[in-house]
């Protein structure tokens, strides 16, 4: 049975890091960067040898155009980039992003080793877009009868109608900046809007507060299988009534980025690592342990 990438379902660690890159000269470098990126989950086992007892979760995601160029145009049916959404004078902006790494570990040194390995191998091939360090994210999703054994609604993942991409997902990564001394809840209005539209089962939300020397904010990662449904939820969330204090939730913060990535299953990552695509199918291989 296909398995989703570990960092989607479980983040048992104290520290998290999100890396977003743009590939330099994408048509020229897509295949080289793609071949390296699918090796990253396998590198986890090497890092763990230095940190006995540690646990690492890793998510690798691909921007739509990067995925198409790296893997010969074979794609999930609903794969498409995020586009800026506007309503009531507010907006969720769309920004660049070809490659995503989302990492979790209990020891910050372990994460730094992983990030150093990624940076070293991609040097000259990518430009950093965003980099966030934070604690373990808060995870929000709807409970329902069709939930998988791990508790995550099955509708977050691509279903068996697309067998090659089964248990893959999409993730929309958005950065919201706000005052350093303020805590702004992002998941609640999104979840409430999804509930009103009858689409709450389509969302798995990771909320990752972060703080740097000159800024603070919340990074949200919306895992989903239907980009149209999620974009509708986001757009409608800009139209909901203000809170009891008369202030709209989106006016408490400033959305500054938004990029969608495809997150394939572990099986697909392993097949790409070991053999790529042959006869328009992913190579069948053993899974990462």
UniProtKB/TrEMBL annotation:
Entry keyword Flavoprotein: no
PROSITE patterns linked to this entry: DYP_PEROXIDASE (PS51404)
Pfam families reported in the protein's UniProt record: Dyp_perox_N
Cofactor field: heme b
Residue ranges of coiled coil: none
GO molecular function, one term: heme binding
Keywords, alphabetical: Iron, Metal-binding, Oxidoreductase, Peroxidase
Dyp-type peroxidase N-terminal domain ranges (all copies): 49-127
Keyword Oxidoreductase: yes
Protein name (record): Dyp-type peroxidase N-terminal domain-containing protein
Source organism of the structure: Nitrospina gracilis (strain 3/211)
